[in-house]
Amino acid sequence: MWKILGLSMLLALACRGLAGRCPQICVCDNIRRHVSCRRQNLTEVPVTIPQMTQRLDLQGNALKVIPPEAFLSLPYLTHLDLRHCQLERVEEGAFRGLGRLIYLNLASNHLSVLYQEALGGLGSLRQLVLENNQLEEIRPGAFSQLGSLGLLSLAHNSLVYLPDMTFQGLLQTRWLRLSHNALNVLAPEALAGLPGLRRLSLDHNELQTLPGEALSRPDGLVQLELGHNPLTYLGEEDGLALQALRDLALDHAALQDVGAGTFARCPHLRSLDLQSNQLGGLPPLEGVGQLRKLNLSGNPLMCDCAARPLWEWVARARVQTDGLCLEPRRLKGEALESLRAKDLYCQRQGDKQEEGEKVAPRPRAPEEDRATTPCPAACVCSPDSQHSSCENKGLRLIPSGFPNHTQLLDLRRNNFSSIPKGSFPGLAHLVSLHLQSCNITHLGPGALNGLGQLVYLYLSNNQLSGLSAAALQGTPQLRYLYLDRNHFTRLPRAALKVLPKLFSLHLEHNALQHLAMGDLAGAKGLHCLDVSGNNISHVGPGPALELEKLHLDRNQLQTVPTAALEALPALRELYLSGNPLQVLEDQAFRPVAASLQHLYLNGTRLQQISPGAFAGLGPGLRTLYLEKNQLQTLPPMDGFTRLELINLRENPFRCDCQLLPLHRWLAGLNLRVGATCEFPVNARGQKVKAATAAFEACPGWETKKGRRVPPSAQRKTRKAGGKRKQARPVKVGKARPRKRTSHI
Ligand SMILES: *[C@@H]1O[C@H](CO)[C@@H](O)[C@H](O)[C@H]1NC(C)=O
Ligand SMILES: *[C@@H]1O[C@H](CO)[C@@H](O)[C@H](O)[C@H]1NC(C)=O
Ligand SMILES: *[C@@H]1O[C@H](CO)[C@@H](O)[C@H](O)[C@H]1NC(C)=O
Ligand SMILES: *[C@@H]1O[C@H](CO)[C@@H](O)[C@H](O)[C@H]1NC(C)=O
Ligand SMILES: *[C@@H]1O[C@H](CO)[C@@H](O)[C@H](O)[C@H]1NC(C)=O
Ligand SMILES: *[C@@H]1O[C@H](CO)[C@@H](O)[C@H](O)[C@H]1NC(C)=O
Ligand SMILES: *[C@@H]1O[C@H](CO)[C@@H](O)[C@H](O)[C@H]1NC(C)=O
User: Fold this and answer.
1) Which of 158, 319, 695, 697 is least surrounded, with the fewest CB atoms within 10 Å of its CB?
2) Mutation test of ligand 6: which of 535, 537, 579 has the most ligand atoms closer than 8 Å to its C-beta?
3) What share of the chain is helix, strand, coil (3-state, %, to 5)?
4) Rounded CA gap, 601 and 584, in Å?
5) Which ligand sits nearest to residue 335's alpha carbon?
6) Would you say residue 703 has pLDDT above 80?
7) Closest ligand 5 atom to the C-alpha of 417?
8) Is 430 in the pocket of ligand 3 (CB under 6 A)?
């Protein structure tokens, strides 16, 4: 029936001479009026595309430029796909004549500017996708003719700044995606003229403060995504005033403090996501009577008397809360919500904070201070956000005279060469100090004197080769220390001794050759150590640590440092990618087998994995990266029953009877793993999971559909040795392994 109808339609069109000839390199479905000319290296739009065409797919060509009126002969187009066309320019009037177009995809090109008239004539357009370009600039008026547009995606570009009225004319746009750019400033009227906007995605940008004024323009906003921005503090002054807002995501920012009144002008807020910030606590939030969900997971919550007001508020207001206590020790790992009021007490030293009345997380600047806030010349001090910045001002000396309530001081990209004693007077409330890329060779004794509240110290990308205890004296609260991209040849042992609270230490891209874990003796609370991209060939044993993440990737290790792992019983993530391991020995991960959840072994030149190499690792392991190795076979994997991701791409698997257990295991696993046969030749390129023909003749094959045969009955002694040829590079698609939905 369908066919006949289609055929007669086609005939009818052909009779009227409208079907046109199909360009040789395209595939035309003139019944549905679809034409596809994918990946043909076309440098211009073919001229003989049937005029009636509604959907045109030109993905993967080499058009480079769309000249004016390029589609004038295709007035019926509704869908146009121009992804991956190496586009550098869209000329003014390029789409003129496409008054019926409702979908235009320009993603994954090289566009860096969008000119004013480039999108003229697209009055019916409903979706415009500009993702994955290099847009740095949007000229005013670029979108002014898109009055029907519902979705505009500008994600994954290089936008830094949005000027006033950028989106003028987008009267019907409901969702604006600006995720994954480098936005750090939004002009106050940048988001004006978007009366229909309901959802705004600004996650993964560089916002250091909330652009409250700009964000309050689209007043119908219901959902706002601001996660993954380097925001450190939010308060009422930030001025978020969104009457209709229901969902607000502020996850994975760098929040250290949130003021009680921050959301007071968002009365309909129902869900607030604050997960993975650095909040030690939260005051009861004011004016959010409809809040139902508050996600605090992944924050270092301090569950003592100071947490009581929060606890009481969430209980009273029936806000469902996620969040685990990090401190005090007795409550570590407990859910705040599950505690009883009497659990939340403070050690009675004197009568300090005795009954939990004192909750103000940090003293605020008195209101009167504001008008007269001091600030050094060349710097900007914001009394509202309590941030002061002199970034990239060519300074040779550290200025003084910052407001005494400054919490974040940004001195990045100056030229200090050394930091002498007492460089930061009067900054007793400083929490975060940025000294990245300052050409610093030396931190003098007492350099940080007086910074008693400092939690974050950024010294990345300097010329440091050592750090003395005296240099860090006076910063007992320091938890995050960034020393990456310097010239360290060993761990700064002495300095670590005066940092009892250190939580995370970054030393990636230095010149370490030997990692002496013994140097961490003073850092009992260290949870994360990153020494990737050094030149480490040996890891020495050390004292027991609470380390949860160890980044040892991109070093020169030839064996798994099993002995050093003995001291790390809490290790959850171990990164060994990019080391020349070649072989995994039996019991390699035994010391951390009970805790390990994520294991990275990709790109480690592995040729062989001993049958007992993963001994002990089992249901606990959730991700396993083994791609880009030289593996022809794998040991039994049946013990891994909870994997959510396993990557086996780019290994030269030998699909013979020895691999039957793997084939079988994969057959029962609904994860995409990317394992491909390289040998024997007739199976080359087939997925191990699908290469049934390679295994049919194997002993034990028949039982496949019936009872499960214990893998040990199948397994033969492995003989994976022998000379290996260079693996043919296997073409890897973009598809990532998916989360499985059920277990075997
Ligand atoms: C496109 O060009 C590339 C590189 O010049 C070539 O390898 C490929 O075969 C060409 N594709 C077609 C369909 O002509
Ligand atoms: C909070 O975030 C965690 C971590 O992503 C998630 O597992 C949890 O389900 C979230 N809780 C709520 C209430 O949404
Ligand atoms: C800051 O200094 C002023 C005097 O200049 C003082 O009155 C005020 O209490 C100080 N504030 C803080 C938070 O220490
Ligand atoms: C940085 O400061 C040093 C002296 O401390 C000076 O020699 C050098 O020229 C300065 N570099 C720049 C780029 O100003
Ligand atoms: C770093 O400091 C040295 C001397 O201390 C100077 O020669 C060099 O120019 C400085 N580099 C930069 C980028 O400022
Ligand atoms: C790395 O260490 C090896 C010795 O283990 C040495 O030969 C090599 O020069 C080092 N490379 C760098 C970049 O330091
Ligand atoms: C290993 O895999 C991870 C996750 O895909 C990736 O981020 C990392 O760059 C890889 N490392 C190497 C050395 O290939």
Assistant:
1) 697
2) 535
3) 15, 15, 70
4) 10
5) 2
6) no
7) 5
8) no
Ligand 2 midpoint to CA 321 (Å): 9
* Mean pLDDT on 160-169: 87
What distance in angstroms lies between residue 491's CA and the mean position of ligand 2's atoms? Answer: 36
Residue 165 predicted with pLDDT over 90: no
Q: DSSP assignment, residue 721?
A: -
- How many CB atoms neighbour CB 559 within 10 A? 17
Measured CA to CA, the distance from residue 223 to residue 529 in angstroms comes to 36
Q: How far is the CA of 444 from the centre of ligand 5 (A)?
A: 18
Cβ-proximal residues to 535 (8 Å cutoff; 6+ apart), any chain: 511, 512, 513, 555, 556
Residues with a CB atom less than 6 Å from ligand 5 = 415, 417, 439
Spatial separation of the C-alpha atoms in residues 42 and 241, rounded to whole Å:
50
CATH match for 382-511 among 3.30.450.20, 3.80.10.10, 1.20.1250.20, 3.40.50.12780: 3.80.10.10
Residues near ligand 6 (Cβ within 6 A): 511, 513, 535, 537, 556
Compute the C-alpha angle 234/240/245, nearest 5°: 120
Confirm or reject CATH 3.80.10.10 for domain 232-344, answering yes or no: yes
Nearest-CA residue for ligand 6 atom 7 is 535
The pLDDT, as a whole number, for residue 479 is 86
Check: CB of residue 54 under 8 Å from CB of residue 26. Answer: no
Residue 708, pLDDT > 70, answer: no
Length of the chain: 744
Q: Indicate which residue's Cα is closest to atom 13 of ligand 1.
A: 40
One-letter identity of residue 666: L
Query: Distances from the Cα of 343 to the Cαs of 90, 305, 308, 523, 546, in angstroms?
Result: 64, 8, 9, 28, 24
Q: What is the position in ligand 7's atom list of the atom closest to the CA of 554?
A: 13
pLDDT tens per residue across span 567-607: 999 999 999 999 999 999 999 999 999 999 999 999 999 99
Residue 440 CA to ligand 5 center (angstroms) comes to 9
DSSP 533: T
Query: Closest Cα partner for 288 from 276, 298, 278, 274?
Result: 274
Q: How far is the CA of 439 from the centre of ligand 4 (A)?
A: 9
Burial 467-502 (b: 16+ CB within 10 A, else e): bbbbbbebbeebbbbbbbbbebebbbbbbbebbebb
Ligand whose nearest atom lies closest to the CA of 324: 2
Taking the centre of ligand 2 as the mean of its atom positions, its distance from the CA of residue 299, in whole angstroms, is 12
The verdict on whether omega for the bond into residue 699 sits within 30 degrees of 0, i.e. cis, is no
For residue 604, which atom of ligand 7 is closest to its CA?
A: 13
- Give span(s): CATH 3.80.10.10, the chain: 232-344, 382-511
Q: pTM above 0.85?
A: no
The DSSP result for 339-358, as a single string, is S-GGG-----STTTTTTS--
User: What average pLDDT score do residues 446-468 get?
Assistant: 94
Angle, alpha carbons 630-635-638 (nearest 5°): 130
Spacing, Cα 685 to ligand 7 middle (Å): 23
Ligand 7 centroid – CA 527 distance (Å)? 21
Residues 6+ apart with CB under 8 A from 411: 389, 390, 391, 395, 398, 433, 434, 435, 438
Q: Which residue has the tokens 């979706």?
A: 127
